[in-house]
Amino acid sequence: xxxxxxxxxxxxxxxxxxxxxxxxxxxxxxxxxxxxxxxxxxxxxxxxxxxxxxxxxxxxxxxxxxxxxxxxxxxxxxxxxxxxx
Length: 85
Fold this sequence. Notes:
Elements: H1 2-21, H2 44-84
């Protein structure tokens, strides 16, 4: 019965010795990195106009898809009604 106690004490002593032998490195000091500042943008109106144009093109494209989808659905509906008569 005393055998496990001696093994336990030996394990505790070994663990303590191991913990004392480990040297913890202090964490690296944090460095603050300044972001690269962008130069002021000239001609922002031209950029905005390009964005407006792209949005207008996209909307026109979407409207065309919607119109084509409705036309296709109407033609299919007419075809189905015609086939039932």
